[in-house]
Amino acid sequence: MIRGALHDLIERLPDEELPIAKRFLEYLAINPAYRAALSAPPDDEPVTETDAAAIRQSQEEVRSASITPHADILREFGMR
User: Fold this and answer.
1) With b meaning 16 or more CB within 10 Å and e meaning fewer, what string describes 45-79?
2) DSSP letter string, 27-48
3) What are the boundaries of each domain within the chain?
């Protein structure tokens, strides 16, 4: 019954409001954990020099293609 009422409301929306309605319905339909992450406050912790060094190292590993494939990591932990 409620789905029918929602369909009726959608049919009554002006065309210019449809993109907004679509985005809102997509938001409601996603995983609750993902929704919580989307609405979480931004991380306000300062980036330490150790953090910055780790970020630079990971970026370099990606650039040089010296990263471990995801399948290998899963295999290493017995998950595949």
Assistant:
1) eeeeeeeeeeeeeeeeeeeeeeeeeeeeeeeeeee
2) HHHS-HHHHHHHHSPPP-PPPP
3) 2-39, 49-80
How much is the pLDDT for 10? 94
Number of H helices, E strands in the chain: 5, 0
Cβ-contact 13, 21 below 8 angstroms: yes
pLDDT digits (tens, 9 = 90+) for 42-80: 989 999 999 999 999 999 988 898 888 889 999 999 987
DSSP state of 66: -
Q: Tell which residue, 46, 70, 72, 9, has the closest CA to residue 17.
A: 9
The pTM of the whole model exceeds 0.70: no
